[in-house]
Structure to design on (163 residues):
């Protein structure tokens, strides 16, 4: 396995591990839970800005970023649902939170799990805005990769023609 592939596997495995193993109830210490959620969101913001600063974006890096973002958003939704159950309807487990996040980010929106409270609605609004920005970045990265591939093939064809 290449170092890049190992990095990708590590990102996916650690994201799933953290998502399912990070405790939600910390002796009713909502400040600590807020700090943990805030640190996760800051780490996600750092990962996003790092990707945006790169000149050449890799498709798989963006996919990994979306994977991590979905799990961070799902975790924040789950924390909110555990701390304030009236914020969401139908969100009872971490898997419910991940399902809701993926359905929301994919713009499918089945409606079986939905935000009810103001905090949950604001969180979902932020998730949708992130998703729109991410889809635009992914589209741009894909078009740049296609353009780069065409330019490379054109250069090779021209070079072969000159020989």
């Amino acid at each position: 396995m290449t170092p890049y592939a190992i990095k990708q596997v590590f990102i996916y495995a650690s994201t799933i591990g953290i998502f399912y193993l990070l405790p939600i109830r910390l002796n009713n210490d909502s400040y600590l839970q807020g700090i943990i959620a805030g640190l996760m969101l800051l780490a996600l913001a750092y990962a996003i800005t790092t990707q945006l600063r790169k000149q050449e974006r890799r498709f798989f890096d963006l996919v990994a970023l979306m994977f991590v973002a979905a799990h961070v958003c799902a975790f924040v939704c789950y924390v909110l649902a555990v701390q304030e159950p009236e914020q969401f309807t139908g969100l009872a487990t971490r898997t419910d939170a991940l399902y809701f996040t993926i359905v929301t980010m994919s713009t499918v929106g089945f409606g079986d799990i939905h935000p009810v409270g103001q905090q949950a609605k604001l969180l979902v609004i932020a998730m949708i805005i992130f998703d729109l920005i991410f889809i635009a970045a992914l589209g741009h990265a894909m078009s740049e990769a296609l353009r780069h591939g065409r330019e490379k093939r054109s250069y090779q064809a021209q070079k072969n023609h000159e020989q």
